[in-house]
Each structure stands twice: as C-alpha cells, then as structure tokens.
Design goal:
The protein is an alpha+beta fold and about 210 residues long. It has a single domain, classed as Restriction Endonuclease, CATH 3.40.91. It contains 6 helices and 5 strands, in the order H-H-E-E-E-E-H-H-E-H-H. A hairpin with a 4-residue loop joins strand 3 and strand 4.
C-alpha cells in the first residue's frame, strides 16, 4: 500500500484518477470518486452481505451462510409469513416526500412488529463518527415514512460503520449483537473485518496498477 503521497509534486499532487483531491492513503482507499461505484461498492457489499446472510439464517429465510470470500450475492427479496428481508430495494413513499429512500438492507418483522434498516459504510478511520451521524440524519424522513406505513411498529436504524482499515466503535459490537445474537456477533464482525481488509488491499494494489 502506498505511504502518504506518491512521488509527484506541484500540480501532480492531485489524485491521478479523479483529479479532485490530494492523493493520499486515505483518499485512495476511501475517498476517490472514480472508485466509489466500483471498488468501494464491491467492498461495501462484500462486508454487508455477511451480516445480511447471518440475519437471513436467524430468521430461517436461508439454509446456509456463504463463506466471507464467496462471490454469491443476495437476492433482492426474501420472505415468509413472518418476515420480509430486502437487499438494496427502495421504499416507495406513500405519505411523505422522501429523497433518500434506498437503504442497504431492510427487515420487516411482522411477528415482533419491527422494521430494521441496515446501512453500511467503510470510511477512513478518522471519519467513522461523522459517517454514523450522516447516515442517521439522511434517513430520518424515511424512518418517519416507515412509521406511517407500519403503524405500531418499532422503526430502528443500524449504522454498520467499519473503516477501511477494519476498525469499528464499541457501539457497533452492541448493534451487531442485537442483530445476530450474543453467540454469533464476534465471529460475524471478524468475517466482516476480513472482507473489508481484503478489499482495501485489493483497492490499493489496483490503484497502483491503474496509475
């Protein structure tokens, strides 16, 4: 992985891919707009699907959990008579004007009368807290819309923030424990870390080849 800025000076200090910001380790692995919808999204999905499949198994919507390195991708919808799980499916607003209507994953638990929104992010390590706050604020109108769509249901948002180097806050442990149980959360987090770190290394190597 490159350390600090690559060996170029003056005007060439800007990122050689996006030309928008200074090229640094933080920028390359988490801040380059040229990589946002490709390598960053792949890393994001690789980590999130580990948690998603664990929750599907817990709700008996899936029989098996793929290995953390598996290329298998979730289907958009899983459901039975008690729970419906959505992967990257927008919510169609019925009551409010909602601009941010596409959360990463969503579980509608009819038995326990609860809707859980799951949002994943892999920022630079100094930006974890900021990203959590951004996600909470961004989806506030959606939470209100869902409360109106599901009267009497508890609406909860879980911000799953694991930075590009695999770090996370203490509060994330409690959130993942809530989602998958006290007997599984450590192993789930370990596999999510593996996925993030593996993809971050791939991003750094790919950037070096591309530039």
């Amino acid at each position: 992985m490159p350390r600090g800025r690559p060996r170029h000076t003056g005007d060439d200090e800007k990122c050689r891919l996006c030309r928008e910001a200074q090229e640094s380790v933080a920028h390359v692995v988490s801040g380059c707009s040229a990589l946002a919808q490709t390598l960053y999204l792949t890393r994001h999905n690789a980590a999130l699907k580990i948690l998603f499949f664990e929750m599907l198994k817990g709700y008996q919507l899936a029989d098996a959990i793929p290995p953390w390195y598996s290329p298998v991708q979730p289907k958009p919808v899983y459901q039975d008579d008690k729970v419906t799980a959505y992967w990257d499916v927008p919510v169609f607003a019925e009551h409010l004007q909602v601009r941010a209507n596409r959360v990463d994953a969503r579980f509608v638990d009819r038995e326990n009368r609860e809707v859980m929104l799951i949002e994943m992010s892999c920022p630079w390590m100094d930006n974890r807290k900021q990203k959590e706050e951004e996600k909470t604020l961004k989806y506030a109108p959606l939470r209100l819309e869902l409360k109106r769509q599901h009267p009497g249901y508890k609406i909860r948002q879980f911000n799953i923030v694991i930075d590009a180097l695999g770090g996370y806050s203490r509060s994330l442990k409690e959130e993942v424990k809530t989602l998958v149980g006290s007997d599984r959360y450590r192993e789930v987090l370990r596999r999510m870390q593996k996925a993030v770190l593996s993809h971050t290394l791939h991003i750094a190597k790919t950037f070096k080849v591309m530039c």
